Amino acid sequence: MFSKILIANRGEIALRIQRACREMGIKTVAVHSTADADAMHVRLADEAVCIGPPAARDSYLNVAAILSAATITGAEAIHPGYGFLSENAEFAETVEEHGIAFIGPTAQHIRTMGDKISAKTTMAALGVPLVPGSDGGLPDIATARKVAARVGYPVLIKAAAGGGGRGMKVAENEDALEEAWNVARTEARAAFGNEEVYLEKYLDKPRHIELQILADTHGHVVHFGERDCSLQRRHQKLLEEAGSPALTAAERDSIGRTVTDALKKMGYRGVGTLEFLYQDKQFCFIEMNTRLQVEHPVTELVCDVDLVREQIRIAAGEKLGYKQSDITFRGHAIECRINAEDPETFTPDPGLIKVFHPPGGLGVRTDSALYSGYRVPPYYDSMIAKLIVHAPDRNAAIARMQRALDECVVEGVKTVIPLHRKILADPEFRKGDYTIHWLENFVAHREG
Ligand code: ADP
C-alpha cells in the first residue's frame, strides 16, 4: 500500500480523498493555487505545495508543477479527483512514466472513452445497447440525411469531442437538419478544435440513469447499481438519487450484468460510470466517465462502500475481495448540489462566507470544504457543498433532505437551496415522475 498520495484537486473532493487516505493511514499532499492558500484542503493535508496562480490552466491543470510537487514530496500515487486532469490521458501517461501510480484507469482506456465515437463503437462491440444513430462520425450532410431518415426525426447532431452539453443540436425535421449540422460543427470546432460530429435519435422523454462500476487488476468487475441523475439544467446535474424511482431490481441486475461483462472484456481498471438514457424500458448508452463522479456518495450510502478507498486499493494492485452477490442495496439516498449561485438566474455568487453551519444528525452527510470566514474564489466551479441523505425508503429520504436543507446555514453568498426546497415539495418529483427535461420546465414555470 502507498504511504503518501498527492491529491491533484481542490474543494470538497480533495477533502473527500484526504478522509479516505487518513483512515487508511496514508499521508496526503495537497496542491493549491495562490487563490487557495487558505482553503480547507490545504489546512487539513499533511503537506501542501503551491503550484501556481489562480487560473486553473496555470495551477490545477499545470502538469509540470503537479509532477514536481509529487517528486519533491515523495508521493507514490496521484489521485486526480473529478474535473481538472481526471480524464486527461496524457496526464495519466506522464504520471506513470515518472514511476508514480495514477489512481484511475489506463491512459488507453481514458483516451478511448474520451472520444464519444470510439466510446460508442467500443461499447456496441461489447454488447452494450446504444441510442439508434450513425455508425461513427458523419463524413457529410448527405450521409447525415440518410441516417436521420433511417432512425426518424427528431435527431441530435453531437460533437465527437463533446462535453458539458456543447456542440449538440436538435433537428426537428429534414428542413432543419442542415442548420443543426452547421451549428454543431462550428460549435465543436470552437470549443474542442475538432469538428467531427455524429448523429443520434433525439429521445423525447428519457431519464438519465448511470451505472457505477469497479474493476480490479485481477479480472474482477462489480457494479454498485444505478443513480438517477435526470434532474439537470443545461446538462448540469443538480439533484441525484440512488436507486432510480423508475427501475426494478430485475432491470438493475440485467443492465448491471451487461456492463460488468463489457468492462471485464475490456480489461478495465478502477471506478467508472456508464451513462445511459432510459426510455420505454430501454437503456441506451451515451458515454462513459473514467473517474470518480460528483454524485458518488449516494451509491456509497446505499451500498455501504467507500469508493475512494476502493480506488486506492485497486491502484495499489489489491484484489476486490468480494463478489457481485456480496453487494446489497439498502434504503434510498439523495444528493443536493449546493452551488453558490442566484437561485433565480443561476449567476455565480462567489464571496465571503459569513456563517456556515452544515446540517447533521441521523443519515445526513455533508461533503464540503467551506468554513465560516472562508472566501469562495471566483475562479472555479460554483459548487460549495453536497448534502447527501440516506433513509430506509424514498419518502423518508425526501423528508430527511427537507429537514437537512432547513438546518443548513450559508450566509454571505446566494445558494440554490431555495430551488432544492421547491423541487422536494413538488408532487411530480415526490412521485418520482420526471425525465431529463423536467427541471428546465420546472425552472421556467415556477412561481415566485
Ligand atoms: P456531454 O458530455 O456534452 O454532457 P452527453 O452525451 O453526456 O454529452 O449528453 C448530455 C445530456 O444531453 C444527457 O444527459 C441528456 O440530457 C442529453 N442527451 C444526450 N443525448 C441525447 C439524445 N440522444 N436524446 C435526448 N437527449 C440527449
Q: Give me the side-by-side strand order of the main sheet.
A: 13-12-9-10-11-14-19-17
Shape: globular
The gyration radius over C-alpha positions equals 22 Å
C-alpha end-to-end distance: 54 Å
According to CATH, the fold-level topology of the largest domain is D-amino Acid Aminotransferase, Chain A, domain 1
Tally of individual domains: 3
Summing up helix and strand content along with how strands pair, one would put the structural category as alpha+beta
**Name of the CATH superfamily of the largest domain:** ATP-grasp fold, B domain
Main pleated-sheet profile: 8 strands, antiparallel
> What's the CATH first level of the largest domain?
Alpha Beta
The number of distinct helices, counting runs of at least 4 residues, comes to: 15
pLDDT average, as an integer? Answer: 97
From the 3D coordinates, which CATH architecture of the largest domain would you assign?
2-Layer Sandwich
Bound molecules: adenosine-5'-diphosphate
Uncertain segments: none
Our estimate of the beta-strand percent is 25-35%
Tell me the number of strands.
Answer: 20
Question: Into which percent range does the helicity of residues fall?
Answer: 25-40%
Function: This protein is a component of the acetyl coenzyme A carboxylase complex; first, biotin carboxylase catalyzes the carboxylation of the carrier protein and then the transcarboxylase transfers the carboxyl group to form malonyl-CoA.
Pathway: Lipid metabolism; malonyl-CoA biosynthesis; malonyl-CoA from acetyl-CoA: step 1/1
Protein name: Biotin carboxylase
Pfam families: Biotin_carb_C, Biotin_carb_N, CPSase_L_D2
